[in-house]
Structures are given as structure tokens and as C-alpha cells.
Amino acid sequence: MTAPTQDLAIAPIADADVASVADLWQRCGLTRPWNDPSGDIAFARRGPNSAVLVGRLDGAIVATVMVGHDGHRGWFYYLAVDPALQGKGFGRVMTQAAEAWLTARGIAKAQLMVRADNDRVRAFYEALGYGEQKRTLFAKWLDGRPLTP
Ligand SMILES: CC(C)(COP(=O)(O)OP(=O)(O)OC[C@H]1O[C@@H](n2cnc3c(N)ncnc32)[C@H](O)[C@@H]1OP(=O)(O)O)[C@@H](O)C(=O)NCCC(=O)NCCS
Questions:
Q1: pTM exceeds cut of 0.90
Q2: Ligand 1 site, CB within 6 A
Q3: Residue whose CA is at the smallest distance from ligand 1 atom 32
Q4: What is the pLDDT of residues 11-46, one digit of tens each?
Q5: How far is the C-alpha of 44 from the C-alpha of 52, rounded, in Å?
Q6: Looking at the domain covering 9-113, what would its CATH class be?
Q7: Per-domain residue ranges for the chain?
Q8: 127-149: burial string, b at 16+ Cβ within 10 Å, e else
């Protein structure tokens, strides 16, 4: 198991972090034209059922995860580690922090979606004990716009 050589300081995102976090998501290839990172962050911070956790090394933001629950299952989004620091165990630590966040709120199962073109992340989640579930995801934009890929 990859054990990080330095401890991440993990805390909920603060106002001053938003631009750095959006930049990290951009560099990790997690942004999509139809998702506004600042809007997504603001929405996740609005209520008690979701949060954006930020991991820092020497004060610099190097990792994130958005975590939340819908009253039944827990979900992860925007799991990201600075490309220069990947493969050092920080992704595992951020996932464990998100799991602990859910467990503390009584949520028994964590779920996440992996884009079909993100093959390399499959091995990461498998290393952390996650397994593929055979489900088909159906989605609809509620403002009537056509479905995005
Ligand atoms: C996915 C991501 C968060 C993983 O973070 P990371 O810090 O590189 O991963 P870790 O070093 O914590 O790896 C944890 C385990 O996964 C394994 N792993 C990670 N990437 C892997 C890969 N590409 N292939 C095989 N195994 C991999 C590691 O070997 C490690 O296993 P071990 O502890 O048994 O040695 C990071 O690569 C990233 O930010 N990717 C871009 C954004 C992204 O795709 N996010 C997920 C969206 S669903």
C-alpha cells in the first residue's frame, strides 16, 4: 500500500480556496463546459449534506474531494490530486477522509461515477476496495436542455 511520506492537512474548503480548487480541477481534467466549478462549490457548501474537502501540503492546496449524501447513499465527485503529486498515496487519504465524512453521518455505502474514458482511475478505486456495480445511469437536465455526454 502506498503510504504518503507527508501528512495532508484536510479541512472543508474556505472562500479563499475556490480559485485554487477550480484551477486544480482544470489541471486534473475534471471540468466540463456545462459544469461551473465555482457554482458547484457554492452549491455543495450550501447545506449540511455535502462538503468540499481540501488537502494541503505546507499550506498549498494539492488535493480535493466533493462528498455528499442524498439521505440514502453517499457520493464522491471531484476527487483530484495535483498531477505532480499523484501516486504518493494522497488520493487514498482524500478518499478515506470522504468515507469518514459519510460514516459520521450514518451513511453505509459510498458510490461514485467514472467516465468511460477514464480507464486509469479504475485501478485506483479497485486498490481502495471499490468494485464495479452493474447499473445503467439515466439522467435528464431539469431545465429542458439536451443531455450532455
Ligand atoms: C485518481 C487520483 C485521485 C488518484 O490519486 P493518487 O494520489 O494518484 O492515488 P494514490 O497514490 O493514493 O493511489 C492509491 C492506490 O491506487 C493505485 N493506483 C493509483 N493510480 C493507479 C493507476 N493509474 N493504475 C494502477 N493503480 C493505481 C496505487 O497504486 C495505490 O495502490 P496501493 O496503495 O495498493 O499501492 C489521481 O490520479 C487524480 O487526481 N486523477 C485525475 C482526476 C481523476 O480522474 N479523478 C477521479 C474522477 S472519478
A1: yes
A2: 1-2, 28, 30, 79-81, 86-92, 112, 114, 118, 120-121, 123-124, 127
A3: 1
A4: 999 999 999 999 999 999 999 999 999 999 999 999
A5: 7
A6: alpha beta
A7: 9-113
A8: eeebeeeeeeeeeeeeeeeeeee
